[in-house]
Amino acid sequence: MVVHQVIKHFYRKKPLSADEKPSFMQKVHHLFRRDKEVIKAVDTISFEVGMGQIYGILGPNGSGKSTLIRLISTLLLPDSGHITVCGNDVVQDSFKVRQMINRVSVEASFFKKLSSEENLIYAARLYGVPVRQARRKAGQILRRIGFDTKRIDEQMENLSRGMQQKVAIARALLTSPILLLLDEPTTGLDPKSKRDVQQCVDEIRHEHDAIILLTTHDMEEAEKMCDRIAIIDDGKFIAEGTAKELKSLVTKAGGEATLEDVFIELTGNDLREEG
Amino acid sequence: MTKLTHEISVSYAFIERNFNLLKRYLNWEILFFTYSIVNALTIGLIMVGRGSSRDVLYLVIGALIWGFLSVMMREVSDAITWERWEGTIEYTFMAPIHRMTHLVGSCFFAILYGLLRTGIVLAVMPIFFGKHVDLSGANWLTMMVVVAVSSLSFIGIGLIAAIFPLLSPEKGQAATGILQSIVLLISGVYYEIDVLPSWLQVLSKISPATYTLRSIRAAMLDGASIASQTHNLILLLFIGLITIPLGFWVFDQGEKYAKRVGRLKRSG
Ligand SMILES: Nc1ncnc2c1ncn2[C@@H]1O[C@H](COP(=O)(O)OP(=O)(O)OP(=O)(O)O)[C@@H](O)[C@H]1O
Ligand SMILES: [Mg+2]
Q1: Which residues surround ligand 2, an ion (CB under 5 A)?
Q2: What range does the domain containing A63 cover?
């Protein structure tokens, strides 16, 4: 997968200045004002990920990670630049790209009143996976990541967030994607489940030679899993390399810097305050 | 799998999903059914004892057909609203499916669901109107052909209405509702369109519901043959041939716009 000089801006109406109480006329004026504020969500980003590689993206909240993933998954159109997956452009050949990808997002998006099984079968049909095969495979994956398959018929609204997240992971793996986009896949999982998911992802990388893009707020996870890591801030990659290379960027008195030190030093943010 | 069976199987995903949802929201369905039945009843009963059997039937047909056409106009739009609320729209749009297949599946569900709902209401009517309504002279075949042909134009309108929730789930439902109520006003659902001010009658002439209702009334009240309704059928077909491609095109434009400005995401 190649991302080349990609830019994505969003536009938002400028908020009224907060320091003074706006007068009625100011409010009316504001209502009709056309000037927009630009949010540079992704600002000239380039990188490449090869087969069988896991590429990690770390960054503070609102730094553009999910936007980047949406651009790759054809859900957003880039303002400029190109993204190709196995030679197929995400805008021009979006259908081919969609056949090759799948994604796990932070928020598990499901029909909450339907059961996990119904949701998974719906997804399988969209990808042309035969229903029987989908059932078997979903069962395998779910058991693998510690989902109690007895609850597969239960309405999803009754499942905990972590359990929903596991179903989301099964939904993505069900279609054997060549490019797997993981947007904070382990957020909300208990330590054991987290490890199960990490191992599962690692196996897929080896077995299917898949390309994996992973965003996370978990430094340990990034270090453990990713071949290369980028740190993104304000839509820009501010550092990129192996975990080792990144750690060598920061010197710390009395020992080697951790990835967290590097993150905080480079982004000027404290992880723990973000939540 | 051949290409066509694959597309049919994908379309079926939407039909199956919607029926599954329908099962889970059964209490809402019961509410809708009750409302449809009561609505058709109360409107029909206005005429009982006041007008002829023909007058009663005139109103009941209006209520039933309006119920069916509303489903056609709303269902695709509602399905999109639903997906926007649940956040699944990103997953549906990310899947390797043609938008055509997606929308055809949704439309098929709309037709099935509309027929099912109207059929049940229709079945209940004789209990209340038994002796007040005389259907002995009705031409059911003509009625069914008219329903089938007019479904096309309403599916087209439904597709156009689906763009509203694509751009904004909150405002979208309101916009679809407004569109629907305008069609109700101008199409002569409970009255002849010539009671409308002449500037509104211009709109009546382009509303497919106007022709649908005229032909169905002719069939059910006067036993009109299919041949006698050729004029209306051709008009309905013509409107369908315009609105359906227009609907697909408008939806495609909406999707592109949503992807450009980032309207698909709910959160995260
Ligand atoms: N669809 C959208 N419309 C408008 N602005 C958006 C949209 N999506 C993202 N943004 C803005 O773009 C910026 C980047 O958001 P993004 O969701 O990519 O961040 P993130 O790195 O994934 O954050 P987090 O760690 O909290 O998930 C934010 O300022 C956000 O408000
Ligand atoms: Mg995010």
Answers
A1: A 65-66
A2: 2-274
pLDDT of residue A272: 46
pLDDT per residue as tens digits for the range B96-134: 999 999 999 998 999 999 999 899 888 888 888 877 777
Tokens 């969003």 belong to residue: A10
Q: What is the residue with the minimal CA distance to atom 26 of ligand 1?
A: A61
Q: What is the ipTM of this complex?
A: 0.90
> In chain A, where do the E strands start and end?
2-13, 36-48, 54-58, 80-85, 88-89, 101-104, 179-183, 211-215, 228-233, 236-241
- Structural domain count of chain A: 1
- pLDDT value of position A108: 82
> Residue A273 pLDDT > 50, yes or no?
no
Domain of A65, CATH number, reads 3.40.50.300
**Whole-number pLDDT of residue B49:** 80
Residue length of chain B? 268
pLDDT higher for A275 or B11? B11
Q: Is A39 in the pocket of ligand 1 (CB under 6 A)?
A: yes
Q: What is the interface size between A and B, counted as CB pairs within 8 Å? A: 94
In angstroms, what CA-CA distances link A46 with A49, A73, A75, A97, A164? 11, 16, 19, 18, 33
Is the C-beta atom of A61 inside 6 A of ligand 1? yes
Q: According to the 3-state scheme, what is the secondary structure of chain B?
A: CCHHHHHHHHHHHHHHHHHHHHHHCHHHHHHHHHHHHHHHHHHHHHHCCCCCHHHHHHHHHHHHHHHHHHHHHHHHHHHHHHHHHHCCHHHHHHCCCCHHHHHHHHHHHHHHHHHHHHHHHHHHHHHHHCCCCCCCCCCHHHHHHHHHHHHHHHHHHHHHHCHHHHHCHHHHHHHHHHHHHHHHHHCCCCCCHHHCCHHHHHHHHHCHHHHHHHHHHHHHHHCCCCHHHHHHHHHHHHHHHHHHHHHHHHHHHHHHHHHHHCCCCCCC
Residue A237 forms beta bridges with which residues? Answer: A232
Which residue matches tokens 């609505």?
Answer: B39
Q: What pTM does this model have? A: 0.89
Q: Give the mutation target among A8, A36, A38, A63 for probing the ligand 1 site: most ligand atoms within 8 A of CB.
A: A63
φ/ψ (deg, to 5) at B131 = -90, -10
- Partner residue facing A155 (CB), from B1, B6, B24: B24
At residue A22, the pLDDT reads 73
Beta-bridged to residue A56, according to DSSP, are A214, A229
Look-up of token digits 């693998």:
A144
Contact at 8 Å (CB) between B242 and B160? Answer: no
For position A275, what pLDDT does the model report? 38
Asked if residue A48 has pLDDT above 80, the reply is yes
Are A109 and B261 within 8 A, CB to CB? no
